[in-house]
Amino acid sequence: MTDLPAPLFDTLVIIGPGLIGSSILRRGMEDRRIARRLVACDISPEVRARVAELGIADQIESDPATAARDADCVIICVPVGAIAMVAAQVMPVMKKGAILSEVGSVKTTVMEAMTPLLAQHPDIAFIPAHPMAGTEFSGPDAGFATLFEDRWCLLTPPGHTPADAIRRVTNLWEMMGARVRSMTVDHHDRVCAIVSHLPHLLAFTICGTADDLADETRSEVLDFAASGFRDFTRIAASDPTMWRDIFLNNREALLDMLDRFIADAQAMGNAIRTGDEDVIVSRIKRGRAIRRSLIENRQA
Ligand SMILES: NC(=O)c1ccc[n+]([C@@H]2O[C@H](COP(=O)([O-])OP(=O)(O)OC[C@H]3O[C@@H](n4cnc5c(N)ncnc54)[C@H](O)[C@@H]3O)[C@@H](O)[C@H]2O)c1
Ligand SMILES: O=C(O)C(=O)C[C@]1(C(=O)O)C=C[C@@H](O)C=C1
User: Fold this and answer.
1) Among 113, 197, 198, 214, who pairs with 84 as Cys (CB 3.0-4.6 Å)?
2) Of ligand 2's atoms, which has the minimum distance to the CA of residue 234?
C-alpha cells in the first residue's frame, strides 16, 4: 500500500464561516489533501449550529483562542472592521511558525492595525489574501465549494514574510481552483476601489435614486426591472455590515475613484447635452471591449 502525501495543513481553522469561510470549509471537506482537520469558529450561536447541521467542519468552537491553539493555519473570514480584533485574540496562543491569513476586501487599514501585533509575534507569518469571488449572499448557507474556481486570489504579504509560508498559502488557493497574484496593500486597495467598491457604491446609489422617484415610477421600477436596472439590484442586495466596513476602510482610494467617475459621467452628460455622437459612441465601444476581454479571461 502506498502512503498518501501529507495534507497541506494538519489543522486549518476558519474564523467566520460565512459565505467565504464556509466555501473554504466545503472545499476542504471535499478535498482532504487541504487539511486533515477543519475547525470552524464563529461568534454567532446560530452560525455555529448551522455549520454543525451542514457538516462542513470537523470541530466547531465559539472562542477564537481555543480554536487557534493547535492550528497550522488560521484564516480570519469576518468583516474588515473586526479582522484585527480577532487577530489579537488568536495570535498570543498560536504555535511558532503557524500561518495567519485573512480574506478581507480592504488591506491598508488592516495592515496598519496589524503592525503592532506582528511586532509582538514575529514567529507568526501573516499573509493577507483576497479572493476576487463572491455573491450578494452571506452566511454559511451561501457558500459553495467551487466559489474560487477560475477566480483570482490577491495576496499582500509584508516584505519579510518567509517564502515557504507564501508558497503554502498560494498552494491552498490553487488547490481551491484560484489563480494567485501578490501585490502591495496600496495597489490592492486602488485596484479593488475601481473593480469592486465603486461598482457597489453605484449600485446602492442607483437603487436609492430609483426609490426616491417612487411617486412617479414605483410600479414601473418593479414591473419593468427585467432590464439594466435588475443587474444593479443584484449587487445592491449585498450585506450592509460588510459594505459599511469596506467603504469606511478604503475611504481615500474609493473617494478618488468616485471623483474620477463623477468627472467622466459629467463628460458623458455633456456629450449627450451637446449631441456629440463621437464621444457617446466611443464610450459605449470602450464598455463593450471591456466586457469582451472579461469573457475572454473567463471572468464573466
Ligand atoms: N462576500 C463577498 O463577496 C466577499 C468576497 C471576498 C472577500 N470578502 C471578505 O470576506 C470577509 C467575510 O465576508 P463574507 O461575505 O463571508 O461574510 P459573512 O457575513 O457571510 O460571514 C462573516 C461571518 O463572520 C462572523 N463574525 C463576525 N464577527 C466575528 C467575530 N468577531 N468573531 C468570530 N466570528 C465573527 C459572522 O457571524 C459571520 O458568520 C469580509 O471581510 C469581506 O470583506 C467578501
Ligand atoms: O459577485 C459579487 O456579488 C461580489 O460582490 C463579489 C466581490 C466583487 O465586487 O467582485 C465583492 C467583494 C469582494 O471583496 C470580492 C468580490
Assistant:
1) 113
2) 3
